[in-house]
Amino acid sequence: TPKPTPTPTTPLPPGFSWGASTAAYQIEGAAAEDGKGPSIWDTFTARPGAVRDGHTGHTACDHYHRYREDVALMRGLGLDAYRFSLSWPRILPTGSGPVNQAGLDFYDRLVDELLANGIAPVPTLFHWDLPQALEDADGWLNRDTAHRFAEYAAVAADRLGDRVTRWITLNEPFVHMAYGYAFGIHAPGRALLLDALPVAHHQLLGHGLATAALRAHGAAQVMIANNCSPVRPGGRSAEDLAAVEAYDILHNRLFNDPLLLGSYPDLSGYGAPEPTWGGLVRDGDLAAIAAPLDGLGLNYYNPTWVVAPAAPTAPAGPAAPSAGILPFDLAEPGPGYARTGFGWPVVPDGLTELLLQMRQRYGDALPPVWITENGCSQPDRPVDGEIRDQDRIDYLDAHIDAVAAAVAQGVDVRGYFTWSLLDNFEWAEGYHQRFGLVHVDFETQVRTPKASYGWYRDRIAAHRGAR
Ligand code: GBH
């Protein structure tokens, strides 16, 4: 088989860290084993029509039982670090209260296996699988959830903190708010549009309180993983440019400003009438949220094109932002972009743009950056023999170069984690979109490295050889 030649262009710094990412509900399976409580994704996937073809994460990649094989695959890549998430309801079945030691035991074994293979464990505390019991009390719309999250962080750090030095609190609070609470296309399936805004504040507060709890347990490094997207106009009118501004505020600055600057952007046009959001933002909250971070994780997939909202003719649907209520409409990317299996445009320079924009916006308040997710999906299709995923190789190669371009222009980027190690449960798409370097046959659980696996292994080795 022809072996793709790695092409290290701009050198990345010597200590640059190479990783891969996954998330608990997407890979673990064992959804009801060893005392795990139900999460909102267990509930949501049981709802008819919620996920394509009724797929669920009940078994997923069966990683809960096969983690040793998966760590061996990571070792074969030569990874420095592995980003995974802890299932909150596996550890605290009802979200608070009694600790399920058997659940913690699993992460204990996983962390030991990683360390024995020379791979740094980088757990994320929350990757969208809220304990159902907390959703029954209104989930992230309820301020109490932030306090429960901090307690959970303390439990996890108490057990794993002697070996885990780098923690990530939340994964993509924007996407969880937007898809889970504003549009209803992810769990918990609420379609509140701008009334979902409290979910942003309560997640960020949870991050701040959890950061304090992790620090109290001696955590060396605390980060958060934000999904950020440079915003591009889909038209040229003043209204289109206003929509760009609105989307940038709601997607990017709503989450980055309070973390890095200690204040929210002006949301007066978007459902938060004054600085306290009608009393929701209390004294001390912003100080907690703005506690210093050791790193900012950025998940990048593609830029977002927006235009001014259309006249309010169409009724609001669950997947479509309702015209006339949101201050933007999503638009098609300009022509000429390759698309991933999902249809997302392939725009590597958007990653350079994002990194330079973060540096320009936040200056010295920007901590070192890690790319905590970046990757490309292919639609599910029958495979026979070798999986030549050249489009994934091209995608990863161009995006790693895009990181190097930003580093060359002075942005402090310390590492890159690709999404994902394994094909896995892709949320509302079920198993129909595959992001893995490793193919998973979901009938047999057989793992087969794709061509991109060999390419990434060689890319990492080339970087090490070059230093
Ligand atoms: C991440 O979310 C998640 O953290 C991860 O769990 C998930 O598996 C992975 O990405 C892949 O989906 O081009 O306008 O049609 C990513 C959130 C939202 C990013 C949709 C890309 C493209 C929308 N994504 N967005 S568009």
From TrEMBL:
Keyword Hydrolase: yes
Region listing for Disordered, in residue ranges: 1-16
Comp. bias (Pro residues): 1-14
Molecular function GO labels: beta-glucosidase activity
Pfam family, one: Glyco_hydro_1
Keyword check for Hydrolase: yes
Keyword entries, A-Z: Carbohydrate metabolism, Cellulose degradation, Glycosidase, Hydrolase, Polysaccharide degradation
Coiled coil: none
Top-rank EC class of the record's enzyme: hydrolase
Enzyme Commission code(s) on record: 3.2.1.21
Catalytic activity as recorded in UniProt: Hydrolysis of terminal, non-reducing beta-D-glucosyl residues with release of beta-D-glucose
Family: Belongs to the glycosyl hydrolase 1 family.
Protein name: Beta-glucosidase
